[in-house]
Amino acid sequence: MVATKAPEDAYTAEPFVPGRGGLTALRRAAAECRGCPLHRDATQTVFGAGNKDARVMLVGEQPGDQEDRQGKPFVGPAGRLLDRALEEAGIDPSEAYVTNAVKHFKFTRAEPGKRRIHKAPTLREMTACGPWLAAELAVVEPELIVVLGATAGKALLGSSFRVTQVRGTVLEEEIHGRPERLVPTVHPSSVLRADDREAAYRGLLSDLKVAAHVLA
């Protein structure tokens, strides 16, 4: 008897992405995604959220602990800091669409029963989740993508992406077959971890002001 491979062994979400329908159909389908092994340990799929007609899409790395529990992106401390910075930069958070390159929380535990510690997704896991991001871009059709951190940048722009080299600049690239404008910046969680949090926040705010200027 030949053992059948589990869907996650293929490392692609492609078979789970519906061929038609808007964000509601995508979100419903993503809840059943088995496109890579990350779904096994995560509480649930955390799909994108926000305005389907958003002019700006913000793309982060992956859900964190709070996002995994609540099923919504950017609801933890990093999300609150991001909302504050967006408002200060002149971008209304309620008019944006926020999502992550990877839709399941990847974590490790120092000890059984202890808190879950974020673990960066691999390029293979990011690539597996790519069809969901492509589908979100096709539906929302944002004028601008704000890339939050190195992992999101690698997922969108390839493994050679370095956020420190291009943050706060306007890039024009083809992403999933669509010409896009992008402004990379750091992930808000890195601001919370920074030794000089105020300086790190000012850097994030400066980059988001570039994004606001593009949208003006």
What does it look like?
This protein is α/β, with parallel strands linked by helices. The protein has helices at residues 23-30, 65-70, 77-89, 123-140, 150-157, 163-166, 188-193, 197-215, and strands at residues 49-50, 56-60, 97-100, 107-109, 116-118, 144-148, 171-175, 178-185. The strands form two sheets. It has a six-stranded mixed β-sheet. Strands 4-5 form a two-stranded antiparallel ribbon. Strand 7 and strand 8 form a beta hairpin. Helix 3 crosses helix 8 (197-215) and helix 4 packs across helix 5. The longest helix has 19 residues, at 197-215. The protein is globular and about 50 Å long.
Secondary structural class: alpha/beta
- Could you list the spans in which at least 5 consecutive residues all have pLDDT below 50? none
In angstroms, what is the radius of gyration? 17 Å
Query: Gap between N and C termini, in Å?
Result: 62 Å
**Overall morphology:** globular
Mean pLDDT: 94
For the biggest sheet, the summary is: 6 strands, mixed
Strand residues, percent: 15-25%
**Which strands sit side by side, in order, in the main sheet?**
1-3-2-6-8-7
Instruction: Give the H and E element order.
Output: HEEHHEEEHEHHEEHH
